[in-house]
Amino acid sequence: MNTPYSITLHIHRFDPEAKRSWVQDHQLEVSGMLRFTDVLRKINQEQDPGLAWTSSCEHAQCGSCSAVINGKPLLLCELLVKDAIERFKTTTFVLKPLTIAPVLRDLIVDLPQAYERVHKAKPYIIEPTGPPVEGDELRIQPQVMERYVEATRCINCFCCAQACISSHKSFLGPNAMMANIVRLFDPKERSKDERLDILFAENGLARCHTARACSFVCPKDIDVAHFLALGKEGIL
Ligand code: SF4
Ligand code: SF4
């Protein structure tokens, strides 16, 4: 049964031109099957076209609709109203932008700035291993791939970085560290020493407390802390 719910949203807003922050309240009657991106769209259409937020794929694959709801970082496109009511045991929701980068407007944060930390971890192959034997593909054995394939599901939504309890400002963050660790596993990467230098730099793994907050919030169910622990234990 598609029960309509009466919900209240307290949305943290920011106007960069006026340099003004405030909390905007909205009351809505909505289907429990709406996702929070649908709810924000409904607010744009019926109550306030000026509310700014971002989304792209709306299939939990691009990581652009991350926000904090009732203290928990998550993807707005994944959360149904009925599930949110059950999960948080309330029909009142406080929506805030992530704090991993400056807020540009309302729920939109400066993602390019957040990505600078990931880029510092070089989430690409620095130096590929030599070309495969002529005519052959460079193949990765399934048992090798199995060791790190879970980490390749990361969509850089920054929910783990938001939840991270490391108080050290320079820490590159769990997703950045994991991006580096993926390439340490990757047999196509030759440049392992440079990767280890990044991992054990001042702003690297030493700043992780292994408290696992990152793993608890990952919308792709990646045990982020497990991969960081493998890096710490040097068993990559
Ligand atoms: S590890 Fe999970 S929570 Fe962290 S950025 Fe990747 S998908 Fe998001
Ligand atoms: S385990 Fe490390 S990376 Fe994950 S939340 Fe804790 S301090 Fe942050």
Helix and strand pattern: EEHEEHEEEHHHHHHH
CATH topology-level fold name of the largest domain? Fumarate Reductase Iron-sulfur Protein, Chain B, domain 2
The percentage helix is 25-40%
Number of strands: 7
Strand order of the largest sheet: 2-1-5-3-4
Rg from Cα: 20 Å
- Identify low-pLDDT runs: none
Shape: elongated
For the record, what CATH class of the largest domain applies? Mainly Alpha
User: CATH superfamily membership of the largest domain, which one?
Assistant: Alpha-helical ferredoxin
Number of helices in the DSSP assignment:
9
What is the first-to-last residue Cα distance? 49 Å
Strand content: 15-25%
> What compounds sit in this structure?
iron/sulfur cluster
Per CATH, the architecture of the largest domain is Orthogonal Bundle
Number of domains: 2
pLDDT averaged over residues: 94
